[in-house]
Design a protein that fits this description.
This protein has 287 residues and is of the alpha/beta class. Among the domains are: 85 residues, Alpha-Beta Complex (Conserved hypothetical protein from pyrococcus furiosus pfu- 392566-001, ParB domain), CATH 3.90.1530; 60 residues, Arc Repressor Mutant, subunit A, CATH 1.10.10.2830; 47 residues, no CATH class. 50% of the residues lie in helices and 13% in strands. It contains 13 helices and seven strands. It has a five-stranded mixed sheet with strand order 1-5-3-4-2. Strand 6 and strand 7 form a beta hairpin. Helix 1 crosses helix 2 and helix 3 packs antiparallel against helix 4. The longest helix has 15 residues. It is elongated and about 85 Å long.
């Protein structure tokens, strides 16, 4: 399958590793300033009011050792600043005793313009699924927008937005395969379904690419594994749909028969080419 060229180019895995730092979603051209901790205050419109003290203490310990990797985003209010994104980091920085924090300073209008630009970018039809995921995650991380808010602004279902962002959780080889067009978004979702087993994810990705499996075939493979089939060969047999059982049924009915496995059983599909053949099949089943 020919590789699909996109704006991200090769090596996308190095941009968004599996446990990626959201700071990577920022533009490299944005200038970071050092601001005094005392000049910052929480955004009065911030919906979150309760912060886990233990988690803040852990973050403060990390900041003490490594510093703040991802800058805060603030808007000027008089001679002080309101936090747009990064209140947890700001609170943890105070616990850690930091005097200053790295921050991106934006006016409200600049923030609105950038938010609008990213929203428009997500709606572009030529963006790859991973590029859309990065843009949506940037809106979530840097603009404090919930996935529900993003979905409403994009005119999409919230589940669609969540599913798109989940693509960032793919292992690096699967992200590269998706970005290069070796697998489809549907294939990628089946790989994600095996997230508890990286080895099985790698094996499924190999089988999809080497065998040219459809999304439905990949889905059958995943269902077989979740149904308790541990051997790869047996799981592959279920994907093909051709088994001793289907061969016996095909000979009996004189037509193609397929078994589609699911996690809780499956279904039998009997093909027919005319109403006469359907009548004969029904008569055979009634015996």
């Amino acid at each position: 399958m020919a590789a699909k060229q996109t704006g991200l180019g090769r090596g996308f895995g190095s941009l968004i590793p599996q446990n990626f730092d959201a700071g990577l979603l920022m533009d490299e051209t944005e200038r970071i300033q050092k601001l005094a901790v005392g000049l910052l205050s929480p955004n009065p419109h911030q919906p979150r009011t309760v912060f886990d003290e233990k988690a803040l203490a852990e973050l403060a310990a990390s900041i003490t050792q490594y510093g703040i990797i991802q800058p805060l985003v603030v808007a000027p209010v008089g001679d002080k600043y309101h936090l747009i994104a990064g209140e947890r980091r700001w609170r943890a920085a105070k616990i850690a005793g930091l005097k200053t924090v790295p921050a991106l300073v934006r006016t409200t209008k600049e923030q609105e313009k950038l938010e609008l630009a990213i929203l428009e970018n997500v709606q572009r039809v030529d963006l790859s699924p991973l590029e859309q995921a990065v843009s949506i995650e940037r809106l979530h991380q840097q603009f404090n927008l919930s996935y529900g808010d993003i979905a409403r602004r994009l005119g999409k279902a919230e589940t669609t937005v969540h599913n798109t962002v989940r693509l960032l959780q793919l292992p690096e080889d699967a992200r590269d395969a998706l970005q290069n067009g070796d697998i489809s978004e549907g294939h990628a979702r089946q790989v994600l379904a095996l997230k508890d087993s990286p080895e099985k994810q790698t094996e499924l990705l190999r089988l999809i690419i080497e065998n040219g499996w459809s999304v439905r075939q990949a889905e059958r493979y995943v269902s077989s594994l979740k149904a308790g089939i541990k051997e790869v060969k047996k799981a592959e047999e279920r994907v093909s749909g051709d088994t001793p059982e289907t061969e016996r049924l095909s000979q009996r009915f004189g037509t193609r028969v397929r078994i589609h496995r699911t996690a809780k059983g499956g279904r039998v599909e009997i093909a027919f080419t005319s109403d006469d053949q359907l009548a004969k099949l029904l008569a055979e089943l009634d015996q």
